[in-house]
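Sample intake sheet
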Amino acid sequence: MPLPDAMRHLALALALSAVATPPVLGQELVRNGSFDRDLSGWDGSLPIPQYGVGEPAWVAGDDARANARSGSVETGWFCNDIHGWCFRLWLGQCIVVRSGGTYRLSVSERGSGEISAGWYSSPDCTTGDLGEAGGAILNNETWARWEKPVTAPSDAHSIWLELEGRVATSLPGEGGSTRWDDASLQVISEPAPVSKSLLIPTAANAGSLLGAVFKTRLTLVSLGSGRPSSVRLQVLPSAGKVGPSRTILLEPGAASTFEDILGELGYEGGAAIEATYGEDQPLFATAEVHADTVDGRYSTPVPVLGDPSSGRSGVTPGISSTATSRTNVGCANVGEGGKRVLAVVHAADGAKLGTVELVVPGRGWAQKAVPFPVSGGYVRWGYDGYMRGQAPDVSCFAIVVDNATNDGSLFR
């Protein structure tokens, strides 16, 4: 095998190999708290040019540990000499935590500044203000370290950490700077993480019309905290097949894209994919089924579901099976037991054209073509012989594909 292929397969094996969860004690949760190269991972106050107000700045070489190859961040404050308004520059980061966990909050500071932290019930620090976690007003002429242990309330899922300059005087034209380094939130103790999952209801690694080969691109990003995120990918296969599973490790804030995720997992055919992760490491994903042809790439965006029951409907309109298009109906089942799903096809005027029956295996996937000519019609869903919508634990869909291009649209 040529060396480039060997290297590619080795990289893939490492990316998809099973990984062990890093030790909990002492884990660092702040992203880029040492400000080695820049301010990535942090949000900050925006400049207001009309009042002469800047923004937080990275400072090369000025490091709390005297590391000339690292740096720090400068916030500070400024009082406008025209209106007398004072502004404080700030830098902040939302960090996902585990309810009931205990952490060591710390930072190095030089100048006059204030550190503050607050708990939130939402994982993104936007809703559910639960009060102050800790903080202090600091005033140090040289680099000094501050720290405090904090314990997350039983309903807290995130902490907002903010570093800002402190106004020493409100006199017009006055200002000052504060420098920060080694911002940290380290684990002292934590409960086990709560598992959550995302569902990609349909995926493919299979041939189709005109010699096209459908593949599935999957992109994953974890932004919860500074610790790597362990994600378990489980293929929910079609009947009679075994669904492989792998665990991957996502670096915080970095996107991982798999151009042919089913092929890379060693699976051929159609399937669904379930991604399981820790609640304290929120996972964001996009998926699309695509086919490369001589005329370019054609694709079908696939919704990623946080709950198989979310957005479900008893009726899916917009289907067509004509000389120029075809429709497939399918379902993914995250439950343990098999389901008999009915897709009753109706014409645009409401006339019943026929029924497509899908036997969806437990923890599996099924899909069939609509054999009836239909234009602008719809599907009514039922299960176990009754027309009462989609079955529990099952997410169904219809895909309308252009016969000339293999471009598709997915409807739920």
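Comment: The chain has two helices and 27 strands. The CA atoms of residues 50 and 80 lie 10 Å apart.
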